[in-house]
Amino acid sequence: MSPLAAVIFDIDGTLTDSVDIHAMAWQEALRKFGYEIPYERVRRQIGKGGDQLLQTLLSRSEVEQHGDELDKFRGELFKSKYMKHIRPLSMVPELFRRIRGKGTKIVLASSAKREEVAAYEKLLQVEDLVEHETSSDDAERSKPHPDIFVAALERLGNPPAQEVIAVGDTPYDAQATAAISVACVGVASGGWTREELQSAGCIAVYAGPAELLAKFDEAPLGAKVRKAA
């Protein structure tokens, strides 16, 4: 029995207090292109990349007409106006050090753009604790499709799925990891309820990174697994 090979972390809502900020950026961008969509409806889509989010909020013809331009505008708006307001959730570096102390690797897997992931890593002060990162740039389709997590496993050398756990704050994370047989631990720090995360397939749900650290030895992250022969 050995420690996990790796833990794959989502970022927004999982490690950073950023879901509301992303929702506001998307809502402003959509309004710029003439689409007035209720804030709560937009917020429930955060966790997906722009490709999947826009397909949910707009018609196919609207996506074909404005999707690429809207997504690009949202990215520039987010960097110039909103990103500076994002703050890390508590105890993230401490949790990462605990994981690395067990000999387990850490990968960040986000639907954000590559430059946003790099900025988050610096904000969280975990640059020296992360083995790999994947972003929307590494995937043809964003969550709830599994592409980003597939890319993360490839960066790790494709360890057996039972030796890896993912951590995310939305049902989209659980749906994506289920498609590749990787267990997902949920955190409620992004605003989804414990019941919603469990219904989506999360094997356990915690309040956020601080509770994951406080309950580390009894949580799935601290579990030992039987390595494949």
Structural account:
With 229 residues, the chain is α/β, with parallel strands linked by helices. It has two domains: 2-18 and 87-225, HAD superfamily/HAD-like (Rossmann fold), CATH 3.40.50.1000; 19-85. 44% of the residues lie in helices and 14% in strands. It has ten helices and ten strands. It has helices at 19-32, 39-43, 50-57, 60-82, 92-101, 114-124, 147-155, 171-178, 194-200, 209-214; strands at residues 2-3, 6-9, 16-17, 87-88, 105-109, 132-134, 164-168, 183-187, 204-206, 224-225. A six-stranded parallel beta sheet has the order 6-5-2-7-8-9, sandwiched between helices. Helix 9 (194-200) links the parallel strand 8 and strand 9. The longest helix is centred in the first third of the chain and has 23 residues, at 60-82. The model has no long low-confidence stretch (mean pLDDT 94).
Mean pLDDT: 94
Superfamily (CATH H level) name of the largest domain: HAD superfamily/HAD-like
Tell me the fraction of residues in β-strands, as a range.
Answer: 5-15%
Strand order of the largest sheet: 6-5-2-7-8-9
Task: Give the CATH level 1 class of the largest domain.
Answer: Alpha Beta
The level of helicity is 40-55%
Q: Which outline best applies?
A: globular
Helix/strand order, N-terminal first: EEEHHHHEHEHEHEHEHEHE
* Derived structural class: alpha/beta
**Tally of individual helices:** 10
Rg value: 17 Å
How many domains make up the coordinates?
2
Q: Write down the CATH topology of the largest domain.
A: Rossmann fold
